[in-house]
Design goal:
- The chain has two domains: about 90 residues, 60s Ribosomal Protein L30, Chain: A (2-Layer Sandwich), CATH 3.30.1330.30; about 140 residues, 3-Layer(aba) Sandwich (Alpha/beta knot).
- About 30% of the residues lie in helices and about 25% in strands.
- The chain has nine helices and eleven strands.
- Strands 8-7-6-10-9-11 form a six-stranded parallel beta sheet, with helices on both faces. Strands 1-4-3-5-2 form a five-stranded mixed beta sheet, with helices on both faces.
- This is RNA methyltransferase.
- Belongs to the class IV-like SAM-binding methyltransferase superfamily. RNA methyltransferase TrmH family.
- Keywords: Methyltransferase, Transferase.
- It comes from Gehongia tenuis.
Length: about 260
């Protein structure tokens, strides 16, 4: 079946997933592009609908278990996608429902009111790259299943459990499970002079302008800051979070290459 009208109910269904209301009402979120669709399918997410641009039917192989699949005109794909250059495939998948593990392990990342979707997606991707076990999000952090976050995370959204809720309660639960909670805070100790982080560490980064809230900071065992050798006042939260994650995961010391002393 070739879908050519943007008024088609299936097209309207996908376009509605651009909004948080549409996602909450349907229980689905939008997948855009080859990598994102392929990673979602590999992760076993239930893909409920796929549209592939006419002439690129080979892309159906990226989601072979989709419940419903159709060819669509280029105009329809462009109408559904929020990307500047659509890659020829869009889809809907069921929103996952992860739960807090009874006994969490490893390194976790928490985002407290991080508002920019690009930052949220980049931080999820970086947490995945650093080997983190999962990500916690405060209720006011950007929706992890918005199209921009999904694109920015580049598939990592499907590799880690993403838990959203009242962050102070989540931090408290992790501390009860034996975690060290460490927040990025400009008033904290020098990150590079601080002692190593234990294996069970929760790294917390906060709002782009204000940092973590005081109610969250009050629950932290440690507060660390990145030194500023230049004249910049602060770092982008995604950059700072990446440095903290890698420092916690691999140690804050400089890693020397072979033959170096």
């Amino acid at each position: 079946m070739l879908i050519e009208s943007v008024q088609n109910p299936k097209v309207k269904r996908l376009r509605a997933l651009q909004s948080r209301k549409g996602r909450e009402e349907s229980g689905e979120f939008l997948l855009e592009g080859r990598k994102v669709v392929a990673e979602a399918a590999k992760a076993g997410l239930p893909i409920t609908l796929v549209l592939v641009r006419e002439g690129e039917e080979g892309l159906f192989a990226l989601a072979p278990k989709a419940a419903e699949a159709h060819t669509a005109s280029a105009r329809v794909i462009e109408a559904v996608s929020a990307a500047k250059t659509p890659q020829g495939i869009v889809a809907a998948a069921r929103l996952p429902e992860p739960r807090l593990p009874e006994r969490p392990e490893g390194l976790w990342l928490a985002l407290d009111e991080v508002m920019d979707p690009g930052n949220v997606g980049t931080l999820i991707r970086t947490a995945d790259a650093a080997g983190a076990a999962g990500v916690l999000l405060s209720e006011n952090t950007a929706d992890p299943f918005s199209p921009k976050v999904v694109r920015s995370a580049a598939g990592s959204l499907f590799h880690l459990p993403i838990l959203r809720g009242e962050l102070a309660g989540l931090v408290a639960a992790f501390r009860e499970a034996g975690y060290t909670a460490a927040a990025g805070d400009l008033r904290g100790e020098d990150f590079y002079a601080a002692p190593p982080f234990p294996a069970r560490t929760l790294i917390i980064v906060g709002n782009e302008a204000r940092g973590p809230r005081e109610t969250v900071l009050a629950l932290c065992d440690r507060r660390v800051k990145l030194p500023m050798a230049g004249r910049a006042e602060s770092l982008n939260v995604a950059v700072a979070g990446g440095i903290l994650l890698y420092g916690a995961a691999f140690g804050t010391g400089v890693r020397r290459g072979p033959g170096e002393s």
